[in-house]
Automatic annotation (TrEMBL), chain A:
It comes from the Bacteria. Coiled coil: none annotated. It holds the Pfam family Radical_SAM. InterPro entries: Aldolase_TIM (IPR013785), DNA_rSAM_put (IPR023874), Elp3/MiaA/NifB-like_rSAM (IPR006638), Endo/Exo/Phosphatase_dom_1 (IPR051675), MoaA_NifB_PqqE_Fe-S-bd_CS (IPR000385), rSAM (IPR007197), rSAM_sf (IPR058240), RuvA_2-like (IPR010994). Residues 56-282 form the Elp3/MiaA/NifB-like radical SAM core domain. This is DNA modification/repair radical SAM protein. Keywords: 4Fe-4S, Iron, Iron-sulfur, Metal-binding, S-adenosyl-L-methionine. The keyword Metal-binding applies. PANTHER family: ENDONUCLEASE/EXONUCLEASE/PHOSPHATASE FAMILY DOMAIN-CONTAINING PROTEIN 1, TYPE II SECRETION SYSTEM PROTEIN K. Its cofactor is [4Fe-4S] cluster. The keyword GTP-binding does not apply. It comes from Kaistia defluvii.
From TrEMBL, chain B:
InterPro entries: DNA_repair_put, DUF4130, UDG_Type-4/5, Ura-DNA_glyco_family4, Uracil-DNA_glycosylase-like, Uracil-DNA_glycosylase-like_sf. This is Type-4 uracil-DNA glycosylase. Residues 313-473 form the Uracil-DNA glycosylase-like domain. Belongs to the uracil-DNA glycosylase (UDG) superfamily. Type 4 (UDGa) family. NCBIfam families: SAM_7_link_chp (TIGR03915), UDG_fam4 (TIGR00758), UDG_fam_dom (TIGR03914). It comes from the Bacteria. Keywords: 4Fe-4S, DNA damage, DNA repair, Glycosidase, Hydrolase, Iron, Iron-sulfur, Metal-binding. SMART domains: UDG (SM00986), UreE_C (SM00987). GO terms for molecular function: uracil DNA N-glycosylase activity. Residues 259-280 are annotated as: Disordered. The keyword Hydrolase applies.
């Protein structure tokens, strides 16, 4: 099988993984004249696919052969897809060749589980090790860890990788045992816990001269949305738990997408992209806007698909409004629909110099229709609309002709 | 009228020197015309000539915030011909109001911040969208790229490429300036025509294959792509030729996936060996701590297991004469799967050392074996276990004691007292009483070491610590007496 065909199979096999970021790691670069690669804290998206997702890393599988039979996965043991496998040297060369042409920011390597977890993990680590030690590669490396792999291998992975991740895939044990019988939540959690201890240790020793680098961009995970009947609430509960327990840098939500060669048990349907989007917005509220999970979410534990979760919260908590943009503390501004974290900082800095008025919001190009019913300004008081039944209807998108999901 | 001719379109130093002088002379922004040598934006300006400044006295020196210099250095790279004048207007304003830049909704501040933002974005996009092509030269392999930036950013963007492609020889050619790296030195040269850049690279087919394969046709979001990768960049991206065909085929491809019947499982699945779930370790001998630990790992007698990482079981030699029972594992114990390894565990270890008890000779466990907490952002706040959880978990403590048959059990804190005696009492009374476990083993109660960590008053802390050591000395004596 030639390289072109292999890359086609093994990139296709990796396209359902939502994580893409190459940010949050330490700053480093190759010394002049030697080696290759740099990371500068902020990741770079080198391209975008027509699905709107960024292409930052070369995201491939070492092999798409897999012992596991997770029903939502195109690479499951019982799938009929063609299989391929890269050698360690092939991935190393491909990464370097792509990197030299500035196509990518680094490598995101994952693998189907072959032979046993340790063998698979060994191969994954060997790629990162070769890039770092044989080729002086300083670019970004994200490795998917295999939860059942030995602690020594996971420790070694952390030496070479910028980020490590373990996918929890499904929010409940019931769903996991139904769809991914070989995966176990306890072993995923144990590995995440172990990683957090190592990350904490590396952080506390950072100031020491010979401190060992351990996955400076931390750990992340992915959950598949819509393959089982879990509610948004249970998904967000788990996210809050994971952020709190293991200090994950990101939880990625991946709308379950139709796959070629679907299992009979999981017939294909269009991916719930809007639900995925709302979950990301809710996740943001948890991490940057001071919301608790219990405050987010609508009927039956599901997020409203029509409007964003912050607007939904505001409509359901109108007694907390209007908020005076000239006086209210930061925490209250962060809860105003239509105000992002950066805008809030701007308003706080500007209001030390002037009384904010409607024109100022126009100047900042803020979504006035959404914002005005909830705020007080120097020249604006919200109308009785805030208490009106009509407000919710006004802020929801107008019904349009039914659109097909594709 | 003052005519300032700057040496080049990005001549920050020239602008700064002139602006500083003009500002100190009190020249109004409206009285300055900014030009660039060689650019004919001002029809009346004689290139290279500057109207000599009127011999006005220099005004007082003044300082501007650091943020303004950063802003000016970036905004000056913008292609808008008004940039010099707007920056000078801002400078004049800063002379009377040092914090004028903080007024982030002021139209001038908004406009200048917009310039800087646009420049930073252009630099970022250059870092992202430059595509090198490998060329064989006499000196060896060289990588050459063609790029068309929107603003005058080549010089500002170049150091990034030098850091990143440290050992390569490369050139980035643009219509206005070009930059070259030989592994040691960055060199700038004149801009060139597009035809000077190589047209192909052998690897581009591979890259296009990757691009096409990583795209999921069921998730078409063209707008999202366009906003991050505007069409103006497409012509220099080798993968861009695929965008339209991929979009065109997406609907058909995803509809096929949704509509096509699901397929039966592969009759010859990939599975080569038993999966880990099937590989079971040798069962531990019944009636041992190891067997009990394995059994407790799957405990679901109360709801605490769900949010926790793992069951944290007791640890220590099976012939231990003293068993310490704490409350429940904390954050660190939950992650490590071992009891008393966190901050309270360290206090406990130190106290044992002080009274001469070897931690390796005692068995340490908890009344409740799962960490109970509420998530608060990035933290987990410890919650006291309630009676039903203590009762549910008692099964395990009781069995541990039954197997270990220690001479003495030490309850660290009231939760342990409740678990071991089944009774609710105050710690003061528990400490004074001669207690027994339900099975009749001698039981001594003292505080939980985490109590010492929470005391804010140093004097009280010292007193309570001394009392804790007294209790542990009694434990050591009772162990020796045996």
């Amino acid at each position: 099988m030639d390289m072109l065909e292999k890359l086609g199979i093994l990139a296709d096999a990796a396209k359902y993984d939502a994580s893409c970021a190459s940010s949050g790691t330490d700053k480093k670069h190759a010394p002049a004249g030697k080696g290759l690669g740099s990371t500068e804290g902020m990741g770079i998206c080198h391209s975008y696919a027509p699905d709107g997702r960024c292409i930052s890393l070369l995201k491939v599988l070492l092999t798409n052969a897999c012992n596991f039979d997770c029903l939502y996965c195109v690479n499951r043991a019982s799938s009929n897809v063609p299989r391929a496998r890269f050698t360690v040297a092939e991935i190393v060369k491909l990464t370097l060749d792509f990197y030299r042409r500035n196509y990518i920011e680094g490598l995101f390597l994952s693998s189907g589980i072959i032979r046993n977890p340790d063998y698979t993990m060994e191969q994954v680590v060997a790629v990162a090790k070769s890039l770092r030690l044989d080729h002086g590669f300083h670019g970004y490396i994200h490795l998917k860890t295999i939860p059942e792999a030995s602690e020594a291998l996971i420790t070694e992975a952390g030496l070479y990788a910028d980020r490590l991740s373990i996918n929890v895939e499904l929010p409940t044990e019931k769903a996991l045992s139904a769809l991914a019988p070989e995966k176990s939540i306890p072993s995923i959690r144990r590995t995440m816990g172990r990683l957090r201890l190592k990350l904490d240790e590396a952080k506390s020793e950072k100031h020491l001269k010979h401190a060992r680098r351990f996955a400076p961009a931390g750990q992340s995970t992915q959950m598949i949305i819509g393959a089982d009947d879990s509610t948004d609430r249970s998904i967000l509960d788990l996210s809050a738990n994971l952020y709190g327990s293991y200090r994950l840098k990101r939880v990625y939500y991946s709308a379950f997408s139709p796959i070629p060669d679907s299992s009979l048990k999981l017939p294909p349907k269009a991916p719930p992209l809007m639900r995925e989007h709302r979950l990301y917005q809710a996740d943001w509220l948890l991490r940057f806007y001071g919301f608790e999970v219990s405050e987010i979410g609508g009927k039956g534990g599901m997020l409203d698909l029509d409007i964003d979760p912050k607007l939904a919260w505001a409509l359901a908590n109108r007694d907390r409004f209007p908020v005076d943009l000239n006086r209210a503390p930061r925490e209250e501004l962060l809860r105003v629909p239509g105000l992002g974290a950066k805008t809030v900082e701007r308003l706080i800095s500007a209001r030390r110099h002037r009384t904010l008025r409607s024109d100022d919001l126009v100047q900042l190009r803020l979504p006035l229709a959404k914002l005005m019913p909830f705020v007080v300004l120097g020249d604006h008081k919200p109308s009785s609309l805030l208490d009106s039944e009509r407000l919710s209807a006004l802020l929801r998108p107008k019904p349009t002709q039914m659109q097909l999901p594709f | 009228m003052h005519r300032i001719a700057l040496a080049g379109p990005t001549d920050f130093k020239g602008w700064r020197d002139a602006a500083r002088r003009l500002a100190r002379q009190g020249v109004e922004p409206a009285d300055v015309v900014w030009t660039v040598v060689g650019e004919s934006s001002d029809l009346f300006a004689a290139p290279g000539l500057e109207t000599p400044a009127a011999p006005a006295p220099e005004g007082p020196a003044f300082a501007v915030p650091r943020a303004f210099l950063d802003l000016a250095e970036t905004a000056i790279l913008h292609s808008d011909p008004e940039r010099f004048a707007l920056l000078y207007t801002m400078l004049c304003r800063l002379m009377t109001n040092h914090d004028a830049l903080e007024d982030s909704v002021d139209p001038l501040v908004v406009r200048l911040n917009g310039f800087a933002k646009s420049v930073r974005r252009d630099i970022h996009k250059m870092h992202a969208f430059v595509r090198f092509r490998a060329v064989e030269t006499e000196a060896g392999e060289c990588f050459i790229a063609w790029f068309e930036p929107e603003h005058r950013i080549v010089e500002a963007a170049a150091p990034f490429f030098a850091r990143r492609f440290a050992s390569m020889r490369w050139s980035i050619l643009t219509p206005e300036r070009s930059v070259h790296w030989d592994g040691e030195i960055l060199r700038l040269s004149e801009g060139v025509d597009r035809s000077a850049a190589p047209g192909e690279d052998a690897l581009e087919d591979l890259w296009r294959r990757y691009y096409a394969s990583i795209f999921n046709p069921a998730r078409l979001k063209v707008q999202a792509m366009m906003s991050e990768m505007p069409q103006k960049y497409w012509r220099n991206l080798p993968e861009a030729s695929l965008i339209i065909p991929l979009i065109d085929q997406a609907e058909r491809r995803s509809a096929e996936m949704v509509q096509s019947a699901t397929t039966p499982a592969n009759p010859r699945p990939q599975r080569a060996r038993p999966t880990p779930a099937e590989v079971t370790e040798a069962p531990a001998m019944a009636g041992t701590i190891a067997a009990l630990r394995a059994e407790a790992a799957g405990c679901r007698r109360c709801p605490l297991w769900a949010p926790a990482t793992q069951t944290v079981f007791g640890e220590g030699p099976e012939d231990a004469e003293i068993v310490f029972v704490g409350e429940q594992p904390g954050d660190q114990e939950d992650l490590a799967g071992k009891p008393f390894v966190g901050p309270a565990g360290q206090v406990f270890d130190a106290a044992l050392r002080d009274v001469g008890i070897d931690r390796g000779r005692v068995y340490v466990t908890n009344a409740v074996k799962h960490f109970k907490f509420v998530p608060r952002g990035k933290r987990r706040l410890h919650q006291k276990p309630n009676v039903s959880e203590i009762v549910a978990c008692h099964v395990w403590v009781a069995q541990e004691l039954q197997i270990l048959r220690p001479r003495l059990v030490v309850a660290l804190g009231l939760t342990a007292v409740r678990s071991l005696t089944g009774k609710t009492m105050t710690l003061a009374s528990a400490r004074e009483q001669k207690l027994q476990t339900e099975a009749g083993t001698a039981l001594l109660a003292t505080i939980h070491p985490s109590y010492l960590l929470r005391l804010p008053d140093e004097a009280m802390k010292a007193r309570e610590h001394a009392r804790f050591l007294e209790d542990l000395k009694r434990v050591a004596e009772m162990a020796r007496a045996a």
